[in-house]
Design a protein that fits this description.
The chain is α/β, with parallel strands linked by helices and about 300 residues long. It is built from 11 helices and 8 strands. Helix 3 packs across helix 4.
Length: about 300
């Protein structure tokens, strides 16, 4: 029913979209220049036709972040989700660095092996920063860009200042606590009713994988995407910026900054929505992305 690399707690999922996505998660060995051995990379693939869509999750997240958006996009497009290097259910070999450069290289190698044609690249929160970085380095791989409440201008996670040994381990253990993760989830949504037991499980399943905390510490200590803000204006492909008008994680000021910095861009506000429009307003988010894909 579920792949063996998923933690046993996956059987406790109760919501239809969560269970459906869990059944679709696969791993594939991706050969990459940053590793002597292929990296077992977690992904989900649904749909056919149209320009392929590739979805990138946020910080300390996984493919589950797109459980409500994926089926709506896959009705009309070949759609992929991948767990970025160091995150989700992708393997975390000890020999690998966990940094933006490593993420970008691994992502390119995944794209080259699995898709190998220009995509509509969709990035949420930190995934937006990863998408911008990828687009700037591999413009031939990206036909269009979609940013969902994207990082890029904002500084990295506040937890970074606590990731000095031995505080690094203690900080990640603090982040692992259910009440801490619940408080973050409540802040991510405009409507707190979305923070169900199933949603909390989806957001925490990847914590069960080995070396979760080590990879999180390494990525955060690398500085994350703090280098990106002065490069955003170099994005030249058509870009759609979708932003929840009640975002309490990144706020709302950066939405206009992205629109101003990226010449070929359009900003659309999503009303009564927090930091995760793809979870809180998936129908509307999918509608805007699909319309953008046809332009």
């Amino acid at each position: 029913m579920f792949e063996s690399f998923l933690p046993s707690e996956v059987a406790q999922l109760t919501e239809e979209t969560s269970i459906a996505l869990a059944r679709e998660i696969r791993r594939s060995p991706i050969s990459t220049s940053i590793s002597l051995e292929p990296v077992e990379t977690a992904y989900v693939h649904q749909g056919t036709g149209g320009t392929p869509i590739l979805l990138l999750h946020g910080f300390d997240s996984s493919v589950f972040e797109f459980r409500r958006l994926l089926p709506k996009l896959a009705e009309r497009h070949d759609t992929w989700i991948v767990d970025l290097l160091g995150f989700g259910f992708t393997d975390r070999p000890k020999s690998l660095p966990f940094s933006p450069d490593a993420i970008k290289t691994h992502l390119y190698d995944f794209w080259k092996e699995k898709i190998a044609q220009p995509v509509i690249l969709v990035g949420a929160s930190m995934g937006g920063a990863a998408a911008i970085d990828f687009t700037l380095s591999h413009p031939d791989a990206v036909a269009k860009l979609v940013l969902l409440d994207s990082a890029g201008f904002a500084a990295g996670p506040a937890i970074g200042k606590f990731l000095i040994p031995p505080l690094g381990y203690l900080a990640t253990e603090f982040l692992r606590k259910p009440n801490v993760r619940r408080s973050v989830s409540l802040k991510a949504y405009c409507d707190p009713s979305f923070v169900t037991q199933d949603a909390e499980l989806c957001a925490a399943l990847h914590l069960k994988l080995s070396r979760w905390n080590e990879a999180l510490i390494a990525f955060t200590k690398s500085g994350g995407y703090n280098f990106l803000s002065n490069r955003i204006s170099a994005v030249s492909c058509p870009t759609l910026i979708l932003w929840g008008d009640s975002d309490q994680i990144l706020g709302t000021k950066d939405a206009a900054r992205f629109e101003s910095a990226i010449a070929n861009s359009k900003l659309i506000w999503i009303d009564q929505c927090g930091h995760v429009p793809h979870l809180e307003k998936p129908e509307l988010t999918a509608q805007f992305i699909l319309e953008f894909a046809q332009v």
